[in-house]
Every structure is written in structure tokens, then in C-alpha cells.
Design goal:
With 189 residues, this protein is α/β, with parallel strands linked by helices. Helices cover 55% and strands 13% of the residues. It has one domain: Rossmann fold. Helix 1 runs parallel beside helix 6, helix 3 crosses helix 4 and helix 4 packs parallel to helix 5. The longest helix has 35 residues.
Length: 189
């Protein structure tokens, strides 16, 4: 039997703690993305597994719409092109699937958002490192402490948990909040 009270309490405590302590960092990420878009840059998002799905979800909300019908916001998920992912993974290394795409598609003025619940995904870290080489602003969306990725990103948004499901639930809330604020700030009448 599910202990609903314990489940909901755990989520509520984590959510409240996270947004209380990370609100300024999230607001900074929104400002950085907004500035990049206003100056002709794009948001490049990437991650593995559930984080890959969230990267695609976030990019779709920016390109299409979140709450209002409006002009597209420039965003790209690096998790969607199976031919690129499998050719780089097969011919070179799975660890290079994001760095190769950032090398090909990223430019100064863009924002690279790497998503990893552990912060230790080598291909995400390599993507962040390649972005830094290209002078692309980097943001990490991770679990508690940020893992190894913490030392490479310009801005870290880490959820204070080691539980992958809880981290991913908060990540989705963060991505929805960012999409809503970007849409509002860039396209509200």
C-alpha cells in the first residue's frame, strides 16, 4: 500500500527547500537565457535518459509554445537526431555525442544547458567543456552538489536530493518555470 502522506510530505519538503534556496540562481538562469535570445543566441539543451526527454520537452516548449501562441524561441535539443547520436557513438565514442554537436552547432552568445541528475555523466560534462571552449555560457541542472559537472559550469542549479525521481520531478518544475518566464518576458503584450 502506498503511504501517500509520506510521499507527498517528501515532495513538499524538497520542493519548498529547493525553491527557497535556489530562487536567485533560477532567476539568474532566466536572465541569461533571455539576454542570449534577445542577442540572437539559442538555448542548447542535452542530457541522457529521463534528462534527454526533459531536454526535448523544454526545447519543444520554447520553439512551439508554453502558455501563449507566439513566435518561436530559438532552442535545440541535442538528444533528438538518432543518426548523429548513433554515428558519433559508433564511430568515435558515446562520450562525444554532445560535444561534437556543440562544436558543429554552438556559437558564442548561445546558452548550453546540461541536465544530469548525478552531475557525473561524462558525455554531458564533455558537452559543457566544449561549450566553454566556444565561449558559450553554461548552466548545469543536476542533483545535490552538482557532481563533477559543478566545477565546469558557469551556473549550477542543483536539487538537494540523491533520489533520481525526486530530482527529475523538480527539474521539470524548473524547466516549466523557465519556459513560462521566458515566454512572458519576451512576448507578453
Amino acid at each position: 500500500m502506498i503511504n501517500w502522506e509520506a510521499f507527498l510530505k517528501e515532495i513538499e519538503i524538497l520542493k519548498n527547500s529547493f525553491f527557497k534556496n535556489k530562487s536567485k540562481v533560477i532567476e539568474e538562469a532566466i536572465k541569461i537565457m533571455e539576454r542570449a535570445i534577445k542577442n540572437g543566441g539559442k538555448i542548447i539543451v542535452f542530457g541522457n535518459g529521463g534528462s534527454a526527454a526533459q531536454a526535448q520537452h523544454f526545447a519543444a516548449e520554447l520553439v512551439n509554445k508554453f502558455l501563449i501562441v507566439r513566435k518561436p524561441l530559438p532552442a535545440l535539443s541535442l538528444t533528438t537526431d538518432t543518426s548523429i547520436l548513433t554515428s558519433v557513438g559508433n564511430d568515435i565514442s558515446f562520450n562525444e555525442i554532445f560535444s561534437k554537436q556543440i562544436e558543429a552547432l554552438g556559437k558564442q552568445g548561445d546558452v548550453a544547458l546540461g541536465i544530469s541528475t548525478s552531475g557525473d555523466s561524462l558525455n554531458v560534462i564533455k558537452g559543457i567543456k566544449k561549450a566553454k571552449e566556444k565561449k558559450i555560457y553554461t548552466i548545469g541542472l543536476t542533483g545535490e552538489g552538482g557532481g563533477k559537472m559543478a566545477e565546469y559550469v558557469d551556473l549550477l542549479i542543483d536539487v538537494p536530493s540523491k533520489s533520481t525521481p525526486r530530482i527529475q520531478e523538480i527539474h521539470l518544475m524548473v524547466l516549466h518555470l523557465i519556459a513560462e518566464e521566458l515566454e512572458k518576458n519576451l512576448y507578453s503584450p
